[in-house]
């Protein structure tokens, strides 16, 4: 007979309660996405697929390929089934081409089981992926340079395929149209892509210019509930970013840029005849690293020549070295497969060690200005002219007629029932807050205040208010309480101007108060001030350039989240990334102010990255046998470190408008020079085994870990990390004397003699051996670089090695050193 109220054959209530609590605790864990790497060769480097020659492509349709791919997928499924609890996970992708692994959506406790499972080499939680966000062909000298050598813009980039992992593409844009009167003549049989149709993206979107388009959404769908009205499960770009990046690298030549009926010129990609392969992995709602690396795996399998990553994690990995993160490992194996990989350096400048491009096998692009600007002017009734920013037409009368000037705070309805917050009172965000009789036909002054500072207010709302109430124009001025703000030229559909400096704002305020009459309570009763807004859409080509953009992330490179410096130069190269015109998606879901437009003027290292990608395609076209390492070296050693005035390149600092003398941690090797990069004279190259030696030489690294993650064996260590054969020398801690080695190769067709010279960093003496050398075509030469500390320094100092050839080749190798003790 049961005692104490227990049911016969059942567990006691206390035990049931404990089981229930355990069950609830397990299910209370918030699921996340985890990237898992496995031991064993992926298909691209599987010994059964043929020779393991670096850069050798495998046929994804071969029986050997298909069999090994199936084996890898089956092994992933079996591991999950035998390691994790049933129902506790959802496998999102199997990676099998350049990396053996998978992505899984599960709980932290289940993911922890995977860390200890046999065959697992790395488990990393998905950190998410973010966007790193015309005239540049002329600024780079392409039309009269490399384009002319490759048959003009009608042939520049012919035969190359550039892959873009981004937000998709706008297939209807003229930058991506196919011209049947100018058919492609080159063979791209090395590329095997496909076209995935879906909402807004019919199969016909792959038109010959766009040769492949895919989308990756398993990570995004696991992360959150996607909005079907704009998170399209197709390669269609609802953001605009992916279209902008693709057209910058490979958009058709001479496409008219027209916004609001105004012609801004013609846009061309860097390699206008290159083909475009689209891999959508970022959605308006979310971006996941899971989708990004799966797209990278597919792009490499398809056979892209160049991989463009204007996206990626914008923070260092939490639990591993920067070089051993899943994202960086995927880039390593893409490079091993023969793909030139370029990634955005990041938009977290100008502070030190803010780069998010870490590894020597990927080229990190920093962003600069060009010498083009779009100035606008506010003309006050007393004749004073205040400079500002805004891509808008003038007020009626072409800026010659002047209109009543009204401060928004003075036009607020006295008896309104709205909140008396800055957004209502002074930021022009809500039409219902303003008296229509006071603002109609007036130039209205809006103030950059709390709402803008906190990111809640928008220029779009000002334009909507201006339209609704019939402003003649608007002026958004800086607020002394918040200081100067950063203003970029955005297209305004009504006359408008941004005045981002407090000093100019105070001039406007002084004039306004002199012309405004108030009663005893301070209420404005008469407005005598007048103003007009001038034309802001005309470009001017003056001033020094390039200048490293304030937002562009800086070096030095670092090894982990503690930001301990490491001996690799980052960023690698500087390219135009400030105010770049390129294609856009009219949907523009994240930027309503650009909604309806087919072009956008954007800034970011996202914009610098496709410049480098397109130029890499041009170099590859001119030198088909070159490896990615050779292309990267050619870019680096031919880069320029002076601006258009012949002065050292400057960089924007913390204070808006401030400049300082830039260093290699701002611009890498310098500003990219495509016309010189096609014929650099010498190159410094590194291959997969060199990168393995580098990884094995890192401090506190277990060789077994390197072998497990990369398959490489630590048989040969570097004498010093700085001995990796990069086209730069970086030493994060120089004590006394250090001998660094480099090897150069003559890729020219003639014998050449080089004289070696040095610009020594402060506090360091540098000597070269040999001081000169003669090198035959395809010959190599070892260089010994001895560095001796002459004075300890508190910060890095910078210099360079210059190899001057008898056939006019000039090879520059930047030096960055922190001399800590004599």
TrEMBL record:
One of its GO terms (molecular function) is serine-type endopeptidase activity. Gene3D superfamilies: 2.60.40.2310, 3.50.30.30, Peptidase S8 propeptide/proteinase inhibitor I9, Peptidase S8/S53 domain. It is found in: Secreted. Residues 70-131 form the Inhibitor I9 domain. InterPro entries: Peptidase_S8/S53_dom, Peptidase_S8/S53_dom_sf, Peptidase_S8_Asp-AS, Peptidase_S8_His-AS, Peptidase_S8_Ser-AS, Peptidase_S8_subtilisin-rel, Peptidases_S8_3, S8pro/Inhibitor_I9. Pfam families: fn3_6, Inhibitor_I9, Peptidase_S8. Residues 723-817 form the Subtilisin-like protease fibronectin type-III domain. The active site is at 166 (charge relay system), 241 (charge relay system), 606 (charge relay system). It comes from the Eukaryota. Residues 157-644 form the Peptidase S8/S53 domain. CDD domains: PA_subtilisin_like, Peptidases_S8_3. This is Subtilisin-like protease SBT2.4. It comes from Vitis vinifera.
């Amino acid at each position: 007979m049961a005692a104490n109220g227990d049911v016969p054959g059942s567990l006691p209530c206390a035990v049931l309660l404990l089981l229930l609590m355990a069950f609830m605790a397990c299910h209370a864990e918030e699921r996340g996405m985890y990237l898992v790497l496995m031991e064993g060769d992926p298909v691209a480097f599987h010994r059964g697929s043929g020779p393991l020659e670096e850069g050798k492509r495998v046929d994804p349709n071969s029986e050997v390929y298909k069999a090994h791919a199936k084996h890898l997928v089956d092994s992933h499924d079996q591991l999950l089934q035998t390691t994790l609890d049933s129902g506790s996970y959802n496998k999102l992708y199997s990676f099998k081409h350049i990396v053996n692994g998978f992505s899984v959506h599960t709980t932290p406790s289940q993911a922890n089981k995977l860390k200890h499972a046999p065959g697992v080499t790395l488990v990393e939680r998905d950190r998410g992926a973010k966007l790193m966000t015309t005239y540049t062909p002329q600024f780079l000298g392409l039309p009269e340079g490399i384009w002319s050598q490759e048959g003009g813009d009608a042939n520049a980039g012919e035969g190359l395929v550039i892959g873009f992992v981004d937000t998709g593409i706008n297939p209807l844009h003229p930058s991506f149209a196919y011209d049947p009167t100018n058919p492609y003549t080159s063979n791209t049989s090395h590329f095997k892509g496909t076209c995935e149709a879906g909402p807004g993206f019919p199969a016909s979107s792959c038109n010959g210019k766009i040769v492949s388009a895919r989308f990756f959404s398993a990570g995004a769908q696991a992360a959150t509930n996607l909005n079907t009205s704009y998170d399209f499960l197709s390669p269609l770009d609802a953001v605009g970013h992916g279209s902008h990046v693709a057209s910058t690298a490979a958009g058709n030549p001479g496409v008219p840029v027209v916004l609001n009926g105004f012609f801004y010129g013609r846009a061309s990609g860097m390699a206008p005849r290159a083909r475009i392969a689209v891999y959508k992995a970022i959605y308006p709602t979310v971006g996941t690293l899971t989708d990004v690396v799966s797209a990278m795996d597919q792009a490499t399998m398809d056979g892209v020549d160049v991989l463009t990553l204007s996206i990626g994690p914008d923070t260092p990995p939490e639990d591993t070295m920067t070089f051993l993160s899943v994202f960086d490992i995927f880039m390593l194996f893409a490079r091993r497969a023969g793909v030139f990989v370029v990634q955005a350096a990041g938009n977290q400048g100008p502070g030190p060690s803010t780069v998010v491009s870490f590894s020597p096998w990927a080229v990190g692009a920093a962003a600069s200005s060009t010498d083009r600007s779009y100035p606008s002017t506010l003309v006050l009734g007393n004749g004073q002219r205040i400079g500002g920013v805004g891509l808008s037409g003038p007020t009626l009368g072409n800026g010659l007629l002047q209109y009543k000037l009204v401060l928004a705070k003075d036009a607020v309805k006295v008896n309104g029932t709205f909140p008396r917050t800055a957004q209502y009172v002074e930021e022009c965000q809500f039409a219902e807050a303003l008296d229509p009789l006071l603002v109609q036909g007036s130039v209205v002054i809006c103030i950059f205040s709390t709402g803008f500072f906190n990111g809640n207010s928008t220029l779009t709302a000002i334009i909507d208010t201006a339209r609704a109430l019939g402003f003649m124009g608007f002026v958004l001025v800086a607020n002394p309480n918040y200081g100067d703000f950063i203003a970029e030229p955005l297209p305004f559909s009504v006359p408008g101007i941004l005045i981002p400096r407090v000093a100019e704002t105070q001039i406007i305020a002084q004039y306004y108060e002199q012309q405004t009459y108030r009663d005893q309570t301070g209420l404005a009763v008469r407005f005598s001030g007048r103003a007009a807004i001038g034309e802001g859409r005309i470009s001017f080509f003056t001033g020094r350039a390039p200048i490293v953009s304030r937002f562009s992330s800086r070096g030095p490179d670092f090894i982990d989240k503690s930001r301990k410096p490491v001996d690799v130069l980052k960023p690698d190269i500087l390219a135009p990334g400030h105010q770049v015109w390129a294609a856009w998606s009219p949907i523009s879901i994240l930027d309503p102010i650009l909604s309806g437009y087919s072009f956008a003027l954007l800034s970011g290292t996202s914009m610098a990255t496709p410049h480098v990608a397109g130029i890499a395609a041009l170099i590859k076209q001119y030198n088909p046998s070159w490896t990615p390492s050779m292309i990267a070296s050619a870019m680096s050693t031919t880069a320029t470190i002076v601006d258009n005035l012949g002065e050292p390149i400057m960089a924007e600092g913390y204070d808006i408008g401030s400049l300082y003398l830039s260093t290699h941690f701002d611009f890498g090797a310098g500003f990219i020079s495509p016309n010189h990069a096609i014929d650099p004279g010498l190159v410094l190259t590194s291959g997969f085994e060199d990168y393995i030696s580098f990884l094995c030489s890192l401090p506190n690294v277990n060789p077994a870990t390197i072998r497990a993650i990369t398959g490489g064996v630590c048989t040969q260590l570097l004498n010093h990390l700085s001995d990796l054969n990069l086209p730069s020398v970086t030493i994060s801690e120089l004590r006394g004397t250090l001998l660094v080695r480099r090897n150069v190769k003559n890729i020219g067709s003639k014998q050449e003699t080089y004289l070696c010279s040095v610009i020594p960093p402060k506090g360091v003496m540098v000597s070269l051996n040999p001081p000169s050398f003669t090198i035959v075509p395809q010959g190599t030469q070892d260089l010994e670089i001895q560095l001796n500390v002459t004075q300890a320094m508190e910060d890095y100092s910078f210099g360079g090695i210059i190899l001057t050839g008898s056939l006019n080749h000039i090879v520059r190798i930047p030096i960055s050193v922190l001399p800590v003790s004599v």
